[in-house]
């Protein structure tokens, strides 16, 4: 063993006489023969008691000494019950682990431990929970606590990388301290769960554009309702939705898809504009043709009805007086035929035969140089 060097367990010399017999308390007692002996513990304890008695007044404990020591201990124990609550804090006093009172800012006193204890909470400080944000901790550089917690499946079955911040304050200090074991972790878990539910009901394009405010409002209300049901004593003051983007691995492809959708929307708008221009024109032209056809129909029908009525009137007159009616019809017909014709009447009743002299009186009435028939 390491102490076996011609000596005892305390490193002293044996019968060889070198270095003496020294124990762990210094120079050990020497026997008559010069050999080493272990120290007497009873003698050491007795010497310690004698020295302590010399220190105490009167050379011993006595009733006065015990009373004085008790008072000192009681005083030291009593002053440990003073505590101070800062202006932005509330003090939560518990007695054997049970909450008994809430103290406002200032200097207060509670029964010293282990009877009572106090925990101070800042109730005006606005706390913040960040999800999906990249932070710089100064050691590992830019990083995220959990990169997968911000990946959420949207209602149209796309994956979105969502980053948001939840701001909250302590609303009820007693509930915050005693109802939830780890309030900060609980707020974070509830925020992630609520955002997943709201984003899961929304389309990706809607969440990126006009639906951002609606999503933030619904998520904040849902977080507050869950924390209220838990009795967490927390009030959510604000939720900021920083981004709703596709994951970084597919963001370039997604931008190409977005550009294609933009072109599709442009072409659709142009087609709708052309449709809105041509269709009214075609409808107007069709209506015009229908109205013209209707007018023509009414005209033809009215003309046919008039001719039929005229024919019936002529037929009635003919049945009443056939000779006169035939003569009248003949005269009217000849009048219509010969109205615009040049006519030469030859009277054959004079008895003249052969060549009849003809004087072209109608041609004489025309202006010189104009031809005619």
Describe, in plain words, how this protein is organized in 3D.
The structure is a single chain. This protein has 373 residues and is α+β, with helices and mostly antiparallel strands. Among the domains are: 78-123; 127-248, Tetrahydropterin Synthase, Chain A (2-Layer Sandwich). 46% of the residues lie in helices and 18% in strands. It contains nine helices and 13 strands. It has helices spanning 41-55, 62-79, 173-178, 183-200, 204-208, 212-230, 251-320, 322-338, 361-364, and strands at residues 22-23, 26-27, 82-85, 89-95, 98-103, 106-109, 116-122, 127-131, 135-136, 142-143, 151-153, 159-170, 234-245. Strands 8, 11, 12 and 13 form a four-stranded antiparallel beta sheet that branches. It has a three-stranded antiparallel beta sheet with strand order 5-4-7. Strands 1-2 form a two-stranded antiparallel sheet. Helix 4 (183-200) crosses helix 6 and helix 7 crosses helix 8 (322-338). The radius of gyration is 61 Å and the shape is rod-shaped. It starts with 21 loop residues before the first strand and ends in a 9-residue tail after the last helix.
């Amino acid at each position: 063993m390491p102490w076996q060097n011609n000596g005892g367990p305390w490193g002293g010399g044996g019968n060889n006489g070198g270095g003496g017999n020294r124990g762990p308390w210094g120079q050990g007692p020497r026997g008559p023969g010069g050999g080493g002996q272990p120290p007497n513990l009873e003698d050491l304890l007795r010497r310690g008691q004698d020295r302590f008695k010399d220190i105490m007044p009167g050379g011993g404990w006595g009733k006065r000494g015990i009373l004085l020591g008790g008072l000192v201990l009681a005083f030291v124990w009593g002053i440990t019950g003073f505590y101070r609550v800062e202006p932005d804090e509330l003090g939560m006093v518990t007695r054997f682990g049970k909450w008994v009172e809430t103290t406002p800012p200032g200097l207060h006193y509670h029964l010293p431990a282990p009877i009572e204890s106090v925990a101070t909470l800042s109730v005006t400080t606005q706390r913040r929970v960040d999800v999906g944000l990249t932070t710089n901790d100064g050691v590992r550089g830019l990083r995220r606590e959990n990169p997968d917690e911000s990946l959420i499946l949207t209602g149209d079955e796309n994956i979105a990388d969502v980053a948001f911040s939840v701001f909250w304050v302590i609303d009820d200090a007693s509930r915050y301290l005693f109802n939830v074991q780890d309030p900060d972790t609980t707020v974070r878990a509830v925020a992630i769960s609520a955002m997943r539910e709201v984003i899961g009901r929304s389309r990706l394009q809607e969440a990126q554009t006009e639906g951002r405010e609606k999503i933030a409002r619904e998520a904040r209300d849902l977080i507050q309702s869950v924390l209220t049901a838990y009795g967490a004593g927390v009030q959510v003051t604000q939720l900021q939705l920083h981004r709703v983007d596709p994951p970084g691995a597919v963001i370039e492809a997604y931008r190409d898809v977005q550009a294609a959708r933009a072109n599709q929307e442009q072409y659709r708008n142009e087609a709708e504009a052309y449709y809105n221009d041509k269709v009214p024109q075609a409808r107007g032209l069709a209506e015009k043709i229908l109205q013209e056809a209707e007018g023509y129909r009414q005209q033809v029908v009215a003309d046919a009805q008039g001719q039929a009525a005229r024919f019936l009137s002529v037929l009635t007159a003919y049945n009443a007086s056939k000779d006169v009616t035939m003569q009248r019809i003949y005269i009217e017909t000849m009048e219509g035929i010969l109205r615009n014709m040049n006519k030469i009447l030859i009277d054959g009743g004079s008895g003249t035969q052969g060549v009849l002299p003809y004087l072209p009186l109608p041609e004489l009435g025309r202006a010189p140089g104009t031809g005619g028939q």
